[in-house]
Amino acid sequence: MRVTFTVNGRRHEADDVWEGESLLYVLRERMGLPGSKNACEQGECGSCTVRLDGESVCACLVAAGQVEGREVVTVEGLADLARQRGETPAEGAADAGLSPVQKAFVDAGAVQCGFCTPGLLVAADELIEHNASPSDADIREALSGNLCRCTGYETILDAVRLAAARTGQPAGAGAPDAGPDAGTSQGGAI
Amino acid sequence: MEFLRPASWQEALAAKAEHPSAVPIAGGTDVMVEINFDQRRPGWLMDLNRVPELHEWETGEDSVRLGASVPYSRIMENLRAELPGLALAAHTVGSPQIRNRGSVGGNLGAASPAGDSHPPLLTAGAEVEAESVRGSRRIPVEEFFTGVKRNALAEDELIKYVHIKKATGPQQFSKIGTRNAMVIAVCGFSVALHPESRRVRAAVASAAPTPFRATEAEDFLSAALDEEGLWDSDRIVPPSVARRFAELCSAACKPIDDVRGSAAYRRHAVGVMARRTLTWVWESYRNGGRGGARNDEGGTRCA
């Protein structure tokens, strides 16, 4: 079957889509958007998290046919999404085109093997969009559907705190450091 | 495989009548897992996302009419006052991504003994409205679960609404798992106080082939509260009464040993959850509270 929907603001069309195929497969294998990662295929790990009509969902659990005519934002579209919200993208040669959340992950060193990062970025971006000053409990809950197999959760939490702090600041104000807050949260599973 | 995309409820019923083996898909959080893992290859997949009434809810005088596909996130955000037990249970489902897609209708359709919606539906009092081209009927939720992952739906029927009684007293939900998110319940428990009828309802998940109400425990507790005149007093439930209630809840279980837990553990855990959740709802009742949603700010209270 043919499926047509909007991805990151652009209309995409895919032909010969199998009826049982997931949105994730269509994005990665048919639309050339491999940012969303394929890991568990059962909604456990969150590495395929995308926005579907604004809501965070696991792309592996959405049937491609269900997305007909709808709007999807993937990790590849986060910078554009941030720009639409009026946020300033990162500057400088290395960071050009990164959304504030992506920049915060880089600055906080929240990336180890990187496989979970796209899903975490999309989930964290949605959290901050709705809650500019999340508590640690809010962050843990918002990211509770995303697994990091490197277990690098502490720096991920630091990155989200940093991104939230920067988002909450008036334009032009200096960004706080990632460091001092790093040790304040409790360890353990989310 | 054929992908059916009914644009209205009538179209969906007609499609289901024509293809009784069509598998309805709403959030996809169960169905897509089975398809991804090649455990299921239905001839027809029927997308219900385009049927508007399934995504709506309406609060009436005594009950809430909940569309089958209303995601758990909406229940948590919008129906906490009317359906505190279900809202608490909804908050324990999967993760934010799963709660944005999964729904009570899907939970009922899958009819897993471990479904998180089931105990609060049983304790609040609920009816499942099923419809086919032949007509519509309301199935009391107690009669809906017929076996492990089996329900009372005929093959041409679809779940349209769930009619759930609005809370008249505090309600609670508790579940055992290895962490707060992404857990299929080792076992689950819900309790609801119904002060207007001076009854207590208790229900258990994942400790028998189907979710069930612990009616003997309910009867014992309701009688004991009456006998001791506790509904009109400011007193706590005597520990001996709470203990007996817990024992009866445990005794009503018919659990199995499986990967998530042993039968003995489940029986024990149900007793512990029964005692604790009873303490919580009674405390809320004594404090004049109606809702049971007091423990989900800043992390769920440990059960």
Q: The CATH topology of the domain at 171-286 in chain B, please? A: Enolase-like, domain 1
| Overall pLDDT level of chain A | 89
**Mind describing the biggest β-sheet of chain A?**
5 strands, mixed
- Which architecture name of the domain at 171-286 in chain B does CATH use? 2-Layer Sandwich
CATH superfamily of the domain at 171-286 in chain B: CO dehydrogenase flavoprotein, C-terminal domain
Number of strands of chain A: 5
For the CA atoms, what is the radius of gyration of chain B? 19 Å
CATH topology name of the largest domain in chain A, in short, is: DNA polymerase, domain 1
User: What form of chain A results from the Cα inertia axes?
Assistant: globular
Q: Largest chain-chain contact? A: A-B, 32 and 33 residues
> How far do the termini of chain A sit from each other?
40 Å
Low-confidence runs of chain A (pLDDT<50, min 5 residues)?
171-190
Categorize the overall geometry of chain B: globular
Strand-and-helix sequence of chain B, N→C? EHEHEEEHHHHHEEEEEEEEEHHH
Characterization of the model:
The complex is a heterodimer of chains A (190) and B (303). Chain A has 190 residues and is of the alpha+beta class. Chain A folds into two domains: 3-73, Ubiquitin-like (UB roll) (Roll), CATH 3.10.20; 78-183, [2Fe-2S]-binding domain (DNA polymerase, domain 1, Orthogonal Bundle). Chain A has six helices and five strands; from the N terminus they run ββαβββααααα. Chain A has helices spanning 23-30, 78-84, 100-108, 117-130, 136-142, 153-167; strands at residues 3-7, 10-14, 49-52, 55-58, 71-73. In chain A, strand 3 and strand 4 form a beta hairpin. In chain A, helix 3 crosses helix 6 (153-167). The radius of gyration of chain A is 17 Å and the shape is globular. With 303 residues, chain B is α+β, with helices and mostly antiparallel strands. Chain B has a domain at 171-286: CO dehydrogenase flavoprotein, C-terminal domain (Enolase-like, domain 1, 2-Layer Sandwich), CATH 3.30.390.50. Chain B is built from ten helices and 14 strands. Chain B has helices spanning 9-18, 31-36, 72-78, 84-91, 96-99, 104-110, 118-124, 215-227, 239-251, 263-286; strands spanning 2-4, 23-25, 44-47, 57-59, 63-67, 126-132, 135-140, 145-147, 150-151, 158-165, 171-176, 187-194, 199-205, 212-213. In chain B, strands 4-5-10-6-7 form a five-stranded antiparallel β-sheet. In chain B, a hairpin with a 2-residue loop joins strand 6 and strand 7. In chain B, helix 3 (72-78) crosses helix 4 (84-91) and helix 9 (239-251) packs antiparallel against helix 10 (263-286). Chain A binds chain B through residues 1, 18-20, 22, 41-44, 46, 49, 55-58, 60-63, 65-66, 68, 123, 135, 137, 141-142, 144-146, 189-190, and chain B through 1-3, 5, 25, 27-29, 31-33, 35-37, 41, 45, 47, 49, 73, 94-98, 100-101, 178-182, 298-299.
